[in-house]
Specification:
The structure is a single chain. By secondary structure, the chain is mainly alpha-helical. About 35% of the residues lie in helices and about 0% in strands. The longest helix is centred in the middle third of the chain and has 12 residues. The radius of gyration is 22 Å and the shape is elongated.
Amino acid sequence: MSSLVNFLCKDLTESCSTKPPPVPRGREPGEIFVLKSAKEAEMEKMLKSMEGMPGAPSMKMYSREELMSGRGFDDDDDEEPSIPSNLG
């Protein structure tokens, strides 16, 4: 591992030889990092591999909570999604 760091920092670039700039004082903290489960990572990998397939150009996966609440299906507007009444 250290040989990779040395290669990237010293041999390939000069990025490790200078100190990073200071963080601005008024900067808002970012999102808290949440580790994905192995199942979520595998599902994301599978969806990414299916991205170019015909017939599945914009597939999305929804969690059980999203399905139960009925929210999150239509990203374009903030209204509740409507389910057609003629579904049987």
